[in-house]
């Protein structure tokens, strides 16, 4: 499975699953664009993978537009988009106490950000005559989430993927949605630590419990799946993909 010559844009590529995807895609020959709000880590990943770093706030329409204009000017096309940018806030906050501001912030990044990036990717993919969009949802889309905002946003991402897949198929643009399970990212470890603290453990004990994470999968495992999905070998894959 090769990605040589393919231009792959990964939002949220500075850390976690996005970073793993950038590393695997680059190792398999892709020209990787690491797009992230986190400039320090994003630039480091781009340098390590021989790719390009592009700062972006996926929740901001103008910022997303500028990102894809930059990609179009530099490469003239886009072969694949992986939307790994995401946040989780409000873990274990009761529904009746959940701040609307927090809810909107999470939905704006996770759901609206996925839509804005997909919308901007389509013209570049049509120019290439084909393309792949991989939306990163979560097991939280179909299970109880620690955060009402996160669960809602990821459910929306999954539904967005279904709709995009149908509408873009005539343009030879394939859309897949990935539902990662328990993966050892900083975001996941932070939620585990919060849960432990709620159970009465000290902060130190909570982080020790989170860091253990024996049952959690590594981001690299999901990164390999994402690299495969944006390759030609996955042309016949449709719908949702669930990982551990």
What does this structure look like?
There is one protein chain. The protein is α/β, with parallel strands linked by helices and 244 residues long. The chain has two domains: 7-183 and 218-242, NAD(P)-binding Rossmann-like Domain (Rossmann fold, 3-Layer(aba) Sandwich), CATH 3.40.50.720; 184-217, no CATH class. Helix content is 50%, strand content 15%. The chain is built from eight helices and seven strands, in the order βαβαβαβαβαβαααβ. It has a seven-stranded parallel β-sheet, with helices on both faces. It is globular. The model has no long low-confidence stretch (mean pLDDT 93).
Short description:
With 244 residues, this protein is an alpha/beta fold.
CATH architecture of the largest domain: 3-Layer(aba) Sandwich
**What fraction of the residues are assigned to beta strands by DSSP?**
5-15%
The CATH topology of the largest domain is given as Rossmann fold
Overall average residue pLDDT: 93
Text of the CATH class of the largest domain: Alpha Beta
Order of helices and strands: EHEHEHEHEHEHHHE
Question: Strand order within the widest sheet?
Answer: 3-2-1-4-5-6-7
Decide which structural class fits the backbone. alpha/beta
End-to-end distance: 22 Å
- Count of the domains: 2
Largest sheet: 7 strands, parallel
- Binned, the helix content reads 40-55%
User: How many beta-strand runs?
Assistant: 7
Poorly predicted runs: none
The CATH superfamily name of the largest domain is NAD(P)-binding Rossmann-like Domain
Q: Give the radius of gyration.
A: 17 Å
* Gross morphology: globular
